[in-house]
Amino acid sequence: MLNNYIDSLQSSIIWAQQQDDIDVLCLARDTMNQLMDFVTTLPTADQMQAHQDIEDVLPMEWPLWMEACRYEDGASNKHCDATVH
Fold first, then answer.
1. pTM of whole model > 0.85?
2. What are the backbone angles phi and psi of residue 83, rounded to the nearest 5°?
């Protein structure tokens, strides 16, 4: 089961590397979140190995992608309740 989640993450990473689209980056983030949710259900020793396997899959640009997704999340959730005169 873990391999399926990791394969899905790898696929989303490959897609994100080929596309210049914030939605694809956020999809990769969502896939990672699902994987991490699954990892928390594993025994501790298996969790440690899973984290190492995940680190091996993540590209160098992963932190930048996550920052871009975080910025996009903030931009889409902002709205103004007051008008400045």
1. no
2. -115, 130
